[in-house]
């Protein structure tokens, strides 16, 4: 797998769902699995967050095979509207947001099933999405999404226009609203060399600002869970 297909597709965080899909009706999906993973931590260190078939938030064991709804930031070339359904490369997507000349997409249906961490055991510790690299990469949901993205048509719209996210942070706690867990597209400009795949960061200080903000947010409280939800349900 080449580096240009890694980490361009991802799954939403809890904070992103709350921001872009606040109505539970809009979280309902069709497909082979009506449950779909989030990249956020669950109710304890052995669980990851997910959206259930009723549109509510749940906390699941790592070994459960939930559905996966890939999300991508893409160049907004010919994509217009907000909250509209669109078909790209034979896949149905919903446009969640438009930011400058870039659009955030999520598949309308669950496209495949995957364990959060490949295991046959219960009680496997949660490994954050950003930590699913190196020895934690094989068998991870991050690798499953990378594999899906690399299987797309090489010259198709998605492979051509997908943008690396600036950050894919996760919340510190279950059902925590954290601005640092909301992804943004990485802004890059082509290098002057003849190699079109070589880029440099346009705003290098922005990454430092995000990292500092996330470090500070770990020391802050974003409100109690009881103020946002009437109950906590687990599967």
Write the SSE topology:
Blueprint: E1 9-10, H1 14-20, E2 36-41, E3 47-51, E4 57-61, E5 65-68, E6 71-75, E7 85-88, E8 91-99, E9 102-107, E10 112-115, H2 141-150, H3 157-161, E11 162-163, E12 188-190, E13 199-201, H4 204-217, E14 233-234
Describe the 3D structure.
The protein has 235 residues and is α+β, with helices and mostly antiparallel strands. The model is unreliable at 189-207 and 217-234 (pLDDT under 50). The protein has one domain (3-234). Strands 1, 6, 7, 8, 9 and 11 form a 6-stranded antiparallel β-sheet that branches. The protein is built from 4 helices and 14 strands.
Kindly list the characteristics that best describe this protein.
235 residues, 4 helices, 26% strand, disordered C terminus
Which shape, going by the Cα principal axes? globular
Enumerate how many helices there are, as a single number: 4
Structural class of the helix and strand makeup?
alpha+beta
Give Rg in angstroms.
Answer: 17 Å
Through-space gap between termini: 34 Å
Roughly what fraction of the amino acids lie in strands? 25-35%
Mean pLDDT: 82
Which regions are unreliable across 5 or more consecutive residues at pLDDT < 50? 189-207, 217-234
Largest sheet: 6 strands, antiparallel
Domain count, please report it.
1
Q: In a few lines, what is going on in this structure?
A:
By secondary structure, the chain is α+β, with helices and mostly antiparallel strands. The protein has helices at residues 14-20, 141-150, 157-161, 204-217; strands spanning 9-10, 36-41, 47-51, 57-61, 65-68, 71-75, 85-88, 91-99, 102-107, 112-115, 162-163, 188-190, 199-201, 233-234.
């Amino acid at each position: 797998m080449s580096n240009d297909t890694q980490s361009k597709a991802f799954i939403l965080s809890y904070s992103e769902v709350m921001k872009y899909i606040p109505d539970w009706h809009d979280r309902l999906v069709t497909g082979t699995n009506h449950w779909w993973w989030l990249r956020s931590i669950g109710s304890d260190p052995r669980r990851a967050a997910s959206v259930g078939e009723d549109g509510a938030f749940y906390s699941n064991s790592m070994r459960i095979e939930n559905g996966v709804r890939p999300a991508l930031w893409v160049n907004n070339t010919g994509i217009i509207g907000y909250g509209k359904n669109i078909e790209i490369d034979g896949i149905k997507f919903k446009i969640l947001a438009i930011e400058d000349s870039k659009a955030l997409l999520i598949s309308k249906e669950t496209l495949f099933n995957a364990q959060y961490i490949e295991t046959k055991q219960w009680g496997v510790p949660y490994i954050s999405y950003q930590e699913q690299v190196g020895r934690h990469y094989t068998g991870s949901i991050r690798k499953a999404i990378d594999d899906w993205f690399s299987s797309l048509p090489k010259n198709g719209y998605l492979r051509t226009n997908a943008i690396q996210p600036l950050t894919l942070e996760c919340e510190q706690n279950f059902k925590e609203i954290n601005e640092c867990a909301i992804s943004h597209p990485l802004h890059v400009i082509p290098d002057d060399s003849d190699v079109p795949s070589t880029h440099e960061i346009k705003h290098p200080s922005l990454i430092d600002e995000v990292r500092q903000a996330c470090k500070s947010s770990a020391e802050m409280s974003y409100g109690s869970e009881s103020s946002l939800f009437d109950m906590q349900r687990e599967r």
